[in-house]
Design brief:
alpha/beta, 9 helices
Length: 202
Amino acid sequence: MDLRSADPLSHAGATSQLRARPEILLVETDGGGDPQVVMVIEDTVDEDVLRMLRRIRQSTPARGVLIISHIDEQQLVSAAECGFIGVLRRREATSDRMVRVISAAARGEGYVPPDLLGSLLVQVGRMQGQVLGPRGLNLTGLSVRETEVLKLVAEGYDTADIALKLSYSERTIKNVLHAVMVRLNLRNRSHAVAYALRHGLI
């Protein structure tokens, strides 16, 4: 795990707690290793912190854990958009809790303070209903039509068969596939199907 904090005292305290735990292997920032998790300790999620979280997301595939003093629902969503799937308030950041959240993040599991979970789900539902739904999208980032086409490609159907099954022209099916591949930066149909399956989109 890679630990980052602008506050030397917080960094030293967390390092001291985590070094004593055999479940956690700490690596130095930019020190060569390939950490599964990056843990960031901050006071609040302001613009400077968001820029740092985005840089971390762009520079490493590691999952993020955020130890934070103050956070609201919108800041929680912003942190999640940067790949930070574990959030723990500083006042709750005991050694045991940090290890649980770090271990969960390493497995791809998230953690959110319970008092924020309900409002987060309400916000996600609102986003689906007010923003994505009217545009024919859902939280996967694929439209219903794109999902249908990818499912049929995954089942081995060619363009003509898919067009017949969905009552679209072959040109429309090709356009749908092309749009998905361009948007998700995918090489070909096989890559698109593999991506969709790996990310649980179909």
